[in-house]
Amino acid sequence: MADTSVRVANAGGEQVHLVDTGRRDGPPLLIGSGLGGAWFDWDPTVELLRAEHRTVVYDRPGLGRSPAAHAPPSLRRDVQIMADLAKEIGAPVTVLAHSMGAFAAEALARLHPELLNGLVLVDPSYERDPCAGPRVAAALTPLTKTLGGALGVTRIARLGAPAARRLVLRFTSDRDDTVPAATVRDVYGRGTVIGTIAAEELAYREMAADLAALRDRRPFPDLPLVVLTALGDVRGPGRAQDWAEGHRRLAAMSPRGEQVELPGAKHMLQLDRPDAIAAAVAQVLH
């Protein structure tokens, strides 16, 4: 029987907002968003999966309805959050991760393969030659918090949230949000969320470089892996080809890896192509 609980859990020294729904006795799915994402981005996908699976969608610290983070964004922090959540909901789990969230998902597989049944990487971020450069993310995170707090206090974030969200979806999805405008305003009108998005932008290349270093130290385990590639967004023909090639490299990490290209689909596959994600989950679990 499918039911839903919404709570805040302690994981990796942080507090994270969880939406836990579906069959409690079904195969557990741990689901994470990309940069700036929120739990409701996954609603169409969860709707397809919840009858047969336990789906647990979480917001990284400071995003969605999660409280502000204690530690700056980092690969180490995000892997520990995922590891703790996997243990809480009943490892081994299948991880679904979108965009930048795939960095931590891959690192989790390399560091803690015993916690996983497999992975579905949903149009994941990929950097061919990651280079962190000067490491400034941790030092600048207090400034992003201050900026976010100022935008929250002045209500600028709340007033501009719906328009900013619509602009993002215009380029990354073919559908509107699945929640009321008031929910979008409540989430993206939080100064904490705006500050966290800025902090994750700063940390992006550092996390990519840390993952590249981890690849040299820890092999990818013999786990099922499906990489879904969106080919219909605004990257352009040349960049789309590079993106697809990067995803082929990701799929090749595992002897049981497969890449699935989705022509015409945009980056927010969890909104636009939940059917493809559900098919990938079935492939991983069977």
UniProtKB/TrEMBL annotation:
Keyword entries, A-Z: Hydrolase
A Pfam family assignment: Abhydrolase_6
Ranges for domain AB hydrolase-1: 34-280
One MF term in the entry's GO annotations: hydrolase activity
Protein name: Alpha/beta hydrolase
